[in-house]
Amino acid sequence: MKEKVKNIFFKFWYWYLSSIDKNAEVTFMNYGYSKDNHNIELKETDENNRYSIQLYHLIATGVDIKGKNILEVGCGRGGGLSYINRYLSPDLLTGVDLSKKAINFCNKKYSSERIKFLQANAQKLNFQNDSFDVVINVESSHRYSQIDIFLDEVYRVLKPDGFFLFADFGDNNEIERLNTQFWKLNFQLIKFENITNNVIEALKLSTQGREELIRKLLPKLLQNLGRNFAATIGSGTYNSFLTGHYEYVLYVLKK
What we know:
Blueprint: H1 2-20, H2 50-60, E1 69-73, H3 79-87, E2 92-97, H4 100-109, E3 115-119, E4 132-138, H5 147-157, E5 158-170, H6 172-184, E6 188-194, H7 196-217, H8 220-230, H9 236-242, E7 247-254
Parallel strand pairs: 1-2, 1-4, 2-3, 4-5
Antiparallel strand pairs: 5-7, 6-7
């Protein structure tokens, strides 16, 4: 029941964003990353999304992706793949998401970029075995009903010696289940990092901007829901990170 309610909420959220975000201001939907206020170099047009971009930068530079064929599962509104495309010199990029609204948005927003966006279920990827050098999954898997099937699919579509770059949050039990599933598939662990404190730092630094966007886009009735979704300071989601109920982890795994 809990999963059904969660899926209904996210479907509604994507539909609602597509309806109200007329100027395509929301292109990232992750909580961000910051470390001692260190900033990566960005173009001025990317500054509004600095902390979300820094999370993608941390994840995508876990291995050398220059000239690689990359798949992002759960691409959302496409901001992450666009950053990777414009800054990190991959060869081919494919983004998939369950939401048709999100994919339509991406195909319109990034029509000038070399990225292919397709609607697909993370637990049933329509690609041949050994298709990609790198699979990326950022802050998406906590919404999947069967994480084990998703990981089976990632392992299947990765080329031999390919890399899985993964970041998400969950409680202690959920993180433990993830570790178990990774080992079952014989992934080689290249890197593990708990980045909860860095996510909290990013949320503190980005709260003002997120609050402004929430007040701009959402009616008062939905603003508290928006704050919880965006994990602004004082929200239930933010407090779950602060108290240690949620942990945010990053993995680099090799097939």
